[in-house]
Amino acid sequence: MPEEKRIRVAALCGSLRQGSYTKMALRVALDAAAAPFCETDFIDLLQFSLPFADGSHRSLWKEAESLGERLANADGVIIGTPEYHGSVSGALKNALDLTGFAEWEGKMIGLVGVSGGSMGAHNALNTLRDIGRSLHAWVIPQQVSIPEAHKQFDAAGNLRDARLGQRLREVGGQVARFAYLHKCAAAHDFLADWQKAQPNPGA
Q: Quick one: how far is CA 77 from the chain centroid?
């Protein structure tokens, strides 16, 4: 497939816990995004030594630059977070604070939230939806909240509930499809404008 028609979908994992249920859920969603027209990239914050966002320019921090480049290269991002005290993880919020419009504007975003309690991760997901809008990203309507995550996965990391797995796959697939349509639409608009332009008469 031509490069201009290929897309990349990344998963951004906001959990630093070993054996993270957030990571397990995100992998299900990201696997569903993989397709002949779509490359995938799993971004694990555990692999970065990110500084605290203190207002300094990101170029001063190599790890933050690396994170920003991988996000900027994606056409869509599936963000996953555990819900801690009714909000997103501190690690994820810090990572988001180290990025900006350059990484997020115009991107398709899918959301996955994981909770240890029975109420699910709806507060964290609502927070991420607000953050996505503030960064001028397109947050898709579908999202997945996983309550009592310790009951949802077996020892091998496989989901016990087939319906929950289907919902995660739908989020991953929707991010890929909408990112593809958005990218192709932008290319078509550019081509249409170029064809309407007056010919250059030269010097």
A: 2
In the block, tokens 């397709």 appear at 35
Residue 203 to residues 11, 200, Cα–Cα distance (Å): 49, 9
- CA angle, corner 78, sides to 159 and 88, nearest 5? 85
**Mode of pairing for the β-strands spanning 76-82 and 7-13:** parallel
pTM over 0.85: yes
pLDDT, averaged in runs of 10, over the chain (203 residues): 76 95 96 92 94 78 89 97 97 96 96 95 97 97 95 90 95 95 70 60 51
Strand order in the sheet with 76-82: 38-44, 7-13, 76-82, 108-114, 138-146
Tokens of 113: 């939230």
